[in-house]
Known about the structure:
Oligomer: single chain
Bound molecules: adenosine-5'-triphosphate
CATH topology: Rossmann fold
CATH class: Alpha Beta
Amino acid sequence: MTLLELKDVTAAYGRVQVLEGVSLSVPEGGAVGILGANGAGKTTTLRAISGVVRTGGSIVFDGQDIRGLRPDQVAARGIAHVPEGRGTLPNLTVRENLQVGAYLRKDRRAIAGDIDYLLDLFPNLAARISHNASAMSGGEQQMLAIARAFMAAPRLLILDEPSLGLAPSTAKSVYAAIRRLREESGIAMLVVEQNAHLAFSIVDTATVLETGRSVLTGTSAELKGRDEIRRAYLGG
Ligand code: ATP
């Protein structure tokens, strides 16, 4: 079943039209990537879903039109967004960040269970449970941002360039954890990623954006087999 469906989504910053018609869909439990050059509109597409920018077209989540809802309303429907450049609260500890992530939940026992699960998934976070987020490395902060979003118990996790600014080995371990999170939780994911090698390591399908339009959608295997994708995103 389709969980999220965008049809002909448009968006502008002031008078500058940035999205001209983006269509994509994420199945229940599926993982979908968004590829595209700098400025193609990837981040804006995610912000359109989360209600941060105003949009035209249609955005349907779990059978209901969510276009025009405020970010907090979108979050309450079950969409958690990890923004580009991380999403942690720097002056709170690791544990406090995880607890804040669960602020809409009341199931204390399940919250405690999820924290234990995440500390097992991300041993670096376990080792720094009482440290402030600001004291951690970039990779650890990215892991914490993902873990914090997971604490909301979302049905869809939106990730904006989880590898941004990380050393290649760190980016790899962040993706390994995302992959395990996906396999173990069955949570649906929508991932923007410049590094297509990393994106293809977790997504089933991807949509390519060019100047604010979706121009190509296919399975990871189909896309990896196409010359223009190899040239533009996979280094030849
Ligand atoms: P990148 O990988 O560089 O983040 P992107 O594909 O995510 O690229 P967007 O960030 O969605 O692209 O930006 C699309 C276009 O909108 C770009 O031309 C960008 O300069 C412009 N833009 C982004 N944010 C704003 C803003 N707040 N105000 C005005 N223009 C913006």
